[in-house]
Design goal:
Layout: H1 2-17, H2 35-48, H3 65-82, H4 86-101, H5 107-121, H6 126-137, H7 142-155
Helix pairs in contact: 2-3, 3-4, 4-5, 5-6, 6-7
């Protein structure tokens, strides 16, 4: 029992002291069947993801929040309609998570559902658990976050 508490404390400390973002670069974009439909907007997101991968009370970036939301919305609309494989669901979830970080609270369950669909396609894929854990970590759900990070670590002990 003490080991579990220590691991929880350690994970919480790590999450609070270092940025633990799900990185859209981890997604295998070659597996996105509709990439040609979203390439321009996705390039924008990849270039500016530091503006979306966390919540911030103030906007200090050289791009407009409105344009960012529009581009994220375009990607999400295409992705949500066409997602079938793990990478497509991870992309859908990540884009929803980015919109959630830009104060679109309705995106929380959409991102959560997309990550859960990726997990359902392959419960042995640690990356899907990591993305869901990250979503929870940045959404004030530490218990859910830790459970998913622990599942990811159990599936791939090398992610420490």
């Amino acid at each position: 029992m003490m080991k579990i508490y220590f691991r929880c404390f350690l994970l919480f400390t790590i999450l609070c002291s270092t940025p633990a973002f799900s990185n859209i670069n981890v997604i295998n974009l070659k597996n996105i069947s509709y990439l040609s439909l979203i390439q321009e907007d996705l390039d924008f997101v990849l270039k500016h993801q530091e503006a979306f991968n966390h919540w911030s009370e103030t906007w200090t970036y050289d791009i407009s929040r409105e344009e960012s939301l529009e581009r994220l919305k375009k990607i999400q609309e295409a992705s949500a309609k066409k997602a079938q494989n793990i990478d497509e669901w991870l992309l859908t979830g990540t884009i929803s998570h980015y919109r959630y970080n830009l104060n679109d609270d309705e995106q929380f369950p959409i991102a959560e559902s997309a990550f859960q669909k990726a997990i359902a396609l392959d419960t042995s894929n640690y990356i899907s658990y990591w993305f869901l854990g990250n979503h929870y970590a940045h959404s004030s759900k530490p218990k859910e976050s830790m459970l998913n990070f622990f599942k990811a670590e159990k599936l791939n002990p090398n992610i420490r």
